[in-house]
């Protein structure tokens, strides 16, 4: 079916890493490295990390984390961070006041094989903060503990979805960011407005419950960062999924900036 798969060359992890690494040029506000490499079936698999430092603002940099590719068969969630970073490098002012740490390929073995699960056949998004020994989870939990993010955004693509939707739970702020993100993405792909999505009650594309073990801030971290999960419909053309996710990310940056500007007065 057209649109289901990324261009074949982007399925090659080495090609993808080359594209990510190429964003780290002299004078560029972006740094690329490998957070971890781990062996599986005789090969080393990389977990890339990119740190984009936006132009300074009057406040301390806002630290956001963006995660993609936790499920290896959700290519849009890998390609959207790449497209987002390409545009930020071309126009850094879009991220004024932010430091963005991006983990676009959290499940490299699953991506190479086009499987949801990792090399140990586990769903990584049920493994967090449960004593997991999976190398991907250990590396990412280390980052979530050490970097004290102000916000955490995770991208997924759902092949049962009829449009874009998201998970948000706990804080009013989460919903205040998700709603405009869904609205702006809704110009590119429709919103999934069913009353039940992914087995959870949903309203206007927003789900307030969540599975146990999803990627999140450390359980006892205070204050809690904002946490959003943004889902694109995996059966839609991949370039539209990427565009919808990039638009949602741009909107979240803008909306959170506005929120912070008004927060001291609340
Ligand atoms: Zn997923």
* Radius of gyration from the alpha-carbon trace, in angstroms: 17 Å
The rounded distance between the terminal residues' Cα atoms is 50 Å
CATH class: Alpha Beta
Structural class determined from secondary elements: alpha/beta
Please give the largest β-sheet. 10 strands, mixed
Strand-residue fraction?
Answer: 15-25%
Bound molecules: zinc ion
Helix content: 25-40%
Question: Main sheet: which strands, in order across?
Answer: 1-2-4-3-5-10-6-9-8-7
Number of domains: 1
Described by the principal axes of the CA atoms, the overall outline is globular
The CATH level-2 architecture is identified as 3-Layer(aba) Sandwich
DSSP summary, beta strand count: 10
- Total helices: the number is 6
Low-pLDDT runs = none
Q: Output mean pLDDT.
A: 93
CATH homologous superfamily classification: Zn peptidases
Tell me what you see in this structure.
- Strands 1-2-4-3-5-10-6-9-8-7 form a ten-stranded mixed beta sheet, sandwiched between helices.
- It is built from six helices and ten strands; from the N terminus they run αβββαβααββαββββα.
- It has 266 residues and is an alpha/beta fold.
- The longest helix has 25 residues, at 238-262.
- The protein has helices at 13-21, 76-90, 108-113, 135-147, 172-185, 238-262; strands at 30-40, 43-53, 62-67, 98-103, 151-158, 165-167, 196-197, 200-203, 206-207, 226-233.
- The protein has a single domain (8-265), classed as Zn peptidases (Aminopeptidase, 3-Layer(aba) Sandwich), CATH 3.40.630.
- The mean pLDDT is 93.
- Bound molecules: zinc ion.
- Residues 70-71, 74, 156 line the site of zinc ion (ZN).
- Zinc ion is lined by residues 70-71, 74, 156.
